[in-house]
Specification:
With 149 residues, the chain is mainly α. It contains three helices and two strands; from the N terminus they run E-E-H-H-H. A two-stranded antiparallel ribbon has the order 1-2. Strand 1 and strand 2 form a beta hairpin. It starts with 10 loop residues before the first strand and ends with a helix. About 11% of the residues have low confidence.
Amino acid sequence: MSDNLPAIPGMNNTVASTGGTGGGGLGFLALAGRTAKLAASALFLKEGMHSLRSHMEANSTAALRLAEMCGQAEVEPRFTSMIEDVSTALTGVAEASGDMVNAADSVDTDARGFNGAHEQEYRPGYEASNGSGVQQAKPGFYRRTGRRN
């Protein structure tokens, strides 16, 4: 399954890398990679929703024009009304896709904010741990034993 997203550091074929510490995706790089992928996915969603909105607005406008032409041609009013209903529904889809753009924008912003805070808080410890040359416990080990690192 391909998601068409760009390669993201800390990700390995959609399975999170742990930066060499093991632990099934709980490591510093794995979390950073997953939240970066979330932010990228939100951007792709925004792009798709913008395209959908534009398409639905164009279709709604076309349906209104068709309804006007049907009215001028004295087509049975119930059919003209159905076409107007379609235009209204397409406008609703366009508005809903705008709401999705706003939601995706929030997800993108929140994921990037989380990544920044995570980077600031944990990067120094990650760098020190990797630079020490000492084998580190798997992520989550200290939590399972009740000890804090």
